[in-house]
Write a structure and sequence with these properties.
mainly beta; 0% helix; eight-stranded antiparallel beta barrel; 10 strands
Amino acid sequence: VFVFFFFKQKTAYEIYQCDWSSDVCSSDLACSTDPVADVSGTWSLTETVNSSSGFTCLATGELLLAQFADNNRFTGQRSRTAVCTGAPAGFSIDGAHSIINAEVRGSTITFEVDFCDYQGTLTSNNEMSGTFLCPDGLGQQQFLFDGSWSAERS
């Protein structure tokens, strides 16, 4: 009695890379081949910051973004100045900070700045907006911050 087993190895056509982040999908899974949105450049930034202690800040500044070639990841810097109402004496959220863990997928954009997690949507090639949460209180006080942001390409 002979028993034969046949195995078919998938071809390179059947297994392919479907996005720029090195995720590999088989041909029977839906994969996006949409072009990656380019967020590189200077963006004018507006933020509304709310504190768990009841004070608010209105901030303006800019995002300087640099996207990696052929990739959905980017890096950059956020700089801002703010006017806060009801904040403790000497409190400030002004300054420039690096953008880390940043990526754009379709119309969704996510990044981190100074202990804050930003999430948003690219509403066009020149506009984006979203919300943020700063669970560590910007590393300065025992406050929890959240808020909204919008940016327009300069």
